[in-house]
Amino acid sequence: MAKISVIIPVYNAEKYIEQCISSIANQTLKDIEIIAINDGSIDNSLNINSYYQSIINGFIEMTQGLKYVSLLEIPLKLKTIIITMILSFGGLSVHMQVISILSDTKIKYLPFLTARLLHSAIAGIIIFFTFEYWINMI
Questions:
Q1: What is the pTM of this model?
Q2: Of 97, 112, 99, whose CA–CA distance to 35 is shortest?
């Protein structure tokens, strides 16, 4: 297990991602892992060459399911609640990847999952009660 984990948030970073990975990999400390978290980039951020792909320990995809929710023919309020809850929860693919990351540590997954579920429920409730206010503000 690496001593240091470097997490790179990626959103439309096509111009900079390879330079960022190279900079991290060239540090004096070599016992590191690099994890890139893509938050729905629409450019070619993830299409890096094989050299940089070999350096990165993993990619985590965050919001790919949101585009499908936006296509549903349901009321805007319900779409907003669903999207808010998905973003708050983090998505199933993220949780599967978190489980695999935590499997090598002493960190327990159940408290993390419980907190994410509670956060998601609270976010959905807040949107449910404040939706009309925010729509009228626009």
A1: 0.49
A2: 97
Buried b (16+ CB within 10 A) or exposed e, 79-96: bbbbbbbbbbbbbeebee
Neighbours of 64 (CB within 10 A): 12
- Please tell me what DSSP assigns to residue 4: E
Nearest to 39 by CA among 9, 67, 83, 17: 9
CA 16 to chain CA centroid, Å, is 19
pLDDT in the model for residue 126 = 92
Number of other CB atoms surrounding residue 123 within 10 Å? 18
pLDDT in tens, 37-92: 776 677 887 777 777 777 777 666 665 666 677 778 888 888 888 878 877 776 55
> What are the structure tokens assigned to 104, written together?
């090598």
